[in-house]
């Protein structure tokens, strides 16, 4: 399988950079979009970029994409509901790398992630940073970004809304001038 370095051309056509994730309902996205505050070095996500990643795959050929879709179609898991609540950070609050919203409970989405990774076999890398932490990225920070400690404290208990999980999706990620553009390739219903 090709790496996640970008868009190449395989023997059977152009590669696509893909991942599996959960789409967010409009009311939750709208609530999350009320958060952006001036933080030095922050690049806030747009509404169309907000999602919860279940499993990152990377660059795949058309044949590999077809195989991925076939594998994901075999997954059987129950539907569940998540509450989008609170904020967290990757990195230190004084020198953050990513700001994110959490979900509760984490057990059902973690089980779905584990089932998906097992179903994908060698295709799925699981989570980007090793241990799976269900989250919705809200902002990415350049090196030397300003602190977010105060924002974390203010929003620690904030509830952003209900995320009913009735399906998961396979997304294509296309680099763009204003950040990546995520397009749903296929949705997979849960039982």
TrEMBL record:
Pfam family example for this protein?
A: 2_5_RNA_ligase2
Record EC number = 3.1.4.58
Residue positions of the active site: 51 (proton donor), 135 (proton acceptor)
**Recorded catalytic activity of this chain's protein:** a 3'-end 2',3'-cyclophospho-ribonucleotide-RNA + H2O = a 3'-end 2'-phospho-ribonucleotide-RNA + H(+)
Record motif HXTX 2, residues: 135-138
The yes or no answer to whether the keyword Metal-binding is present is no
A GO molecular function annotation here is: ligase activity
Q: Where is this motif: HXTX 1?
A: 51-54
Going by the UniProt record, its keywords in alphabetical order are: Hydrolase, Ligase
Say yes or no: keyword Nucleotide-binding present.
no
Q: Which SUPFAM superfamilies match?
A: LigT-like (SSF55144)
- Alphabetized InterPro entries for the sequence: Cyclic_Pdiesterase (IPR009097), RNA_CPDase (IPR004175)
Looking at its record, which EC class is this enzyme? hydrolase
- What is this protein for, i.e. what is its function? Hydrolyzes RNA 2',3'-cyclic phosphodiester to an RNA 2'-phosphomonoester.
Q: Which family does it belong to?
A: Belongs to the 2H phosphoesterase superfamily. ThpR family.
What's the name of the protein?
RNA 2',3'-cyclic phosphodiesterase
